[in-house]
């Protein structure tokens, strides 16, 4: 009988707690709530914790500086596991329980899935880890913005750089068979035509692919001078570069935001020679930038164990700065609502982020400005190879 | 005072609502379910909708795997076929949800018929692999048939409409789900009492013997596949209309496994088991999420370790079930019920 009682307890008491649990008091008008669904576990976990920390730190620093009109910002985070169903549930849970003014999401998929409801029902400001072009559409998703350039913009910036360096160069795209990989490709093809670059090959591989020989042979046959990766984080980038070098190819390799991480440089080692990437945020090691100094001081004080923050942290932090700016502007206009925040977002022009990014100007729900970076193999860091570049 | 049920005929034994008590509690349950939206918040209703959709899918799989003994590892793909058919019919043909969803079920049943053909030749593990192949083939089609499925980007699905009423919130959609769950469960419960249901069970227990008794294996095995896929298709159509978007990422192989886990945890071959299993598989991860988030406030430094532990806890629970309760939740339920039926004089 005892085991039966145990089972009964498991089956009924815990769901009961759950039903009773989340329904707390929601009022408290002296706090501004910012909710977030972050990929703390799952495939994207390598970035999730850092993005969350960055976003949280930016909001907490604003609190230390007096908050928004005297109101404190509260950061509410749940794990979405980079799974659409888990993330959607977490999103709805936060919306129901806390009713925040701003939400942050973990993936392109979540933004697209919640898009119609964000617009018609919740009416909250929304941003996410994604640089997908579909999410930066002021008409279809007025409440959703991308905290930097879209992947397409990043391709534009890289292609512009190539066109300047070597007009008419032979370019190839190497992307994954995912939404993340395919997002900028149609735009990039057009951009090649406009810039009169010769798009010689498009190779597709799965994320984490091990055997990429056929794709590499294709690149060799077509004699690609520049290869741009999209939609991967580490594998198979290292394998592709290694095999190309083994074939004696002099190809230059490039990547977008998620391909411009220190993690990749550590993995590539000497293969990273000549590797370039595009990133809208300055890196942790750029100690002459005032905002980076501020972040380092804050980190030293609050997280003494943390010795380094990757660019995913900077992404979260920059998004936090934009959130705070929107809140300040909306509060000043006396319209601290979702609509008020969107108006505030659209009014952002030459916003100073302490050098973390270029001065930010809103353009069709994104901030299309970034720098090209070049790998320094000895120091295992990226160094700027251009000034801030914008795509029209 | 009750001291047991006394039945005089097989007909009585086959009754669904056997006693007055059962009817009483079922009416109470129905009233509770109908009134749930009045007391629950959006999040609870969101979970309730997910449970309903999982129940429909699990009942379908249980008819095939639990009752007919044909193991399928491609159930998620059938859910996907239904989901995509519904989405495409709504967005491209302009068909209302109310017709598109049954069509999704039928399309899925048709695909199920084709996939079911190998079941005539192969059994057990071999059939597992055949259905596994179906899962991957269909998943590949979802990704690469871009003209119809829009590939990896997926399709945005508008919410169902009835006249001026739009079912775009968890609250309103709940009633659609509830209705379909009641109809689906009722139909499955009844099919098991008919010639078809008995044929399914006979095939599961010993297909050779069944054939010798005159059961047409070809017909009934394929019928089981079709009915099961039809349920999956309905679940898929309902799901995509509920979450308003469909992408290939919604129907991974792991979802097939999840459905199998539902019927194993719930109880193979039992409709009630499918319901319990679906509730279990949806509610436990949600509960663990809630506990993980709550514990983060209490032990901030523990959070980093506890959140990834969720999978471990979930896995352990399933193993415990398999070891200590192989007949699933339905069996626990029966034991509890029997205990209370004769309480306090159980001997």
How many alpha or pi helices of chain B?
Answer: 15
Unreliable segments of 5+ consecutive residues of chain B: none
User: What's the CATH H-level homologous superfamily of the largest domain in chain A?
Assistant: Response regulator
CATH architectural category of chain B: Orthogonal Bundle
Count structural domains of chain A: 2
Judging from the principal axes of the Cα atoms, what is the shape of chain B? globular
Content of β-strand of chain B: under 5%
Head-to-tail CA distance between termini of chain A: 73 Å
Q: What is the H/E order of chain A?
A: HEHEHEHEEHEHHEHEHEHEHHHEEE
Salient structural properties:
heterodimer; A: 392 residues; alpha/beta; Rossmann fold; 2 domains; eight-stranded mixed sheet; five-stranded parallel sheet; 17% strand; B: 347 residues; mainly alpha; ABC transporter involved in vitamin B12 uptake, BtuC; 15 helices
